[in-house]
Amino acid sequence: MNLKQLEYFLTIVEEGQITAAAKKLHIAQPPLSYQLRLLEEDLGVQLMKRGSRKITLTPAGELLKQRAEQIFSLTTATNREMELFKKGNVGTLSIGTISSSSTVIPDQSILSFASRYPNIQFDIHEGNSYEVIEMLEKGVIDVGIVRTPFKKSGLEIRYAKSEPIVAVFPEGQHHGKHKNLIELIELYDQPLIIYRRFEQLIHDAFEKEQITPSIKCRNDDARTTLNWTKSGFGIGIVPLSALTAQDKLEMTYKEIDDKELQTQMAVVWKSDRQHIPLVLEFIESFAKSIESI
User: Fold this and answer.
1) Could you report the average pLDDT of every consecutive run of 10 residues in the chain (293 residues)?
2) Do 170 and 232 meet the contact criterion of CB atoms below 8 Å apart?
3) Of 61, 141, 196, 222, which is the most exposed, with the fewest CB atoms less than 10 Å away?
4) Measured on CA atoms in the order 226, 228, 234, 237, is the torsion positive or negative?
5) Of 272, 279, 268, nearest to 81 (Cα)?
6) Dmax of the chain from CA atoms?
7) What is the CA radius of gyration of the chain?
8) In the chain, what is the straight-line distance between the N-terminal and C-terminal CA atoms, in Å?
9) What residues have CB less than 8 Å from 211, skipping those under 6 apart?
């Protein structure tokens, strides 16, 4: 078994057909089928069941798919780290970020790091917390910046301080009897725009008050929530740090008066991966910065 065979195998899995995989790989179908047969003979197991339209993985094939993806993720990360070693702090540092971190990143710690290492390039990949962690698992990024709640298995984590979740109102709307706080009971019959990943947290908070929230829109991005709020579609529910300075000037917002509706940003990296000192220095510098926010 070699990396080329694993590449062929994963391409067949992704395309669902040997013919389509051969086309993507720019090789003829017979040599690709031959390589797959050699791989199965070498491992002593059947990896795929060939259907008339689509291949189906056997249990052994499912396991090999997982292991092959891990191998290529580690290969990608290793190549990137070797590049940094080879070029003497010249290379690319890959960071995964969530949309609601845009008010925090880049911060002074990142600017100082960039000043110390002027030849380092930053490769930013954006997504929600689940997508960032998936990129971390696949070795696409060196470090991720995410927000609770998220899956913690296999990760090293440094947390920022807890921050409140706030209700953001469309222009001209005013809700709640307090100036800076709003109670859940004052929101229960209002159209809410929420993060899909916060849905359970929000439902649990409302359930404790024996009321049901009126969810008008679900999405996966802080900027989407705020854009729909600005359009007058409903009341946005976002972490406080998702609001830019301009948002705070243009929009009315109030902290939701519930101690359970809190969230934290976090910097995460793989616990089973050996990182070079330069990456660890970045993590330590940025972690200290967000811990003081």
Assistant:
1) 86 88 88 87 87 83 87 75 62 84 83 88 88 88 90 89 92 84 92 90 91 92 91 93 86 91 90 79 88 72
2) yes
3) 196
4) negative
5) 279
6) 73
7) 24
8) 49
9) 184, 185, 188
